[in-house]
């Protein structure tokens, strides 16, 4: 069974399926050269953030699995966890 990603960028805009989102997990999509981040908290509230940084957009486009580490890097947080 293939799970459908709950955030989809389409020509008409971004389509969300919050009922398929896990709480406390970050979801992302790229739409109109911007990164949109979606987060559903433990009270089922949906949060949306927009990232316009071109360097972050490039890094995330090349490595979407490294999203959280890339965001920390571009926010200036240390990522070394030895």
Summarize the structure.
By secondary structure, this protein is an alpha+beta fold. It has one domain.
Write up this protein.
- The protein has 82 residues and is α+β, with helices and mostly antiparallel strands.
- It has one domain (7-75).
- The protein has 2 helices and 5 strands; from the N terminus they run E-E-E-E-E-H-H.
- The strands form 2 sheets. Strands 3-4-5 form a 3-stranded antiparallel β-sheet, covered by helices on one side. Strands 1-2 form a two-stranded antiparallel ribbon.
- Strand 3 and strand 4 (34-40) form a beta hairpin.
- Helix 1 packs antiparallel against helix 2 (67-75).
- The termini are far apart.
- The mean pLDDT is 88.
What's the helix and strand layout?
Blueprint: E1 7-10, E2 13-16, E3 26-31, E4 34-40, E5 46-51, H1 54-62, H2 67-75
Antiparallel strand pairs: 1-2, 3-4, 4-5
Tell me about the largest β-sheet: 3 strands, antiparallel
Q: Please give the order of strands in the largest beta sheet.
A: 3-4-5
Determine the oligomeric state from the structure. Answer: single chain
Q: By helix and strand content, what is the structural category?
A: alpha+beta
Radius of gyration using CA atoms only: 13 Å
What is the CA-CA span between the terminal residues? 36 Å
Q: In what range is the share of β-strand residues?
A: 25-35%
Shape: globular
The count of β-strands is 5
Order of helices and strands: EEEEEHH
Secondary structure tally, helices: 2
Mean pLDDT: 88
Question: Low-confidence parts, pLDDT < 50 over ≥5 residues?
Answer: none
The residue fraction in helices comes out at 10-25%
- Number of domains in the coordinates? 1
């Amino acid at each position: 069974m293939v799970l459908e990603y709950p955030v989809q960028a389409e020509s008409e805009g971004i389509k969300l399926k919050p009922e398929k989102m896990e709480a406390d997990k970050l979801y992302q999509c790229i739409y109109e050269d911007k990164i949109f981040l979606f987060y559903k908290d433990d009270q089922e509230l949906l949060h949306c953030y927009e990232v316009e940084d071109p360097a972050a957009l490039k890094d995330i486009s090349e490595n979407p699995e490294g999203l959280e580490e890339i965001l920390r890097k571009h926010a200036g947080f240390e990522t070394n966890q030895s």
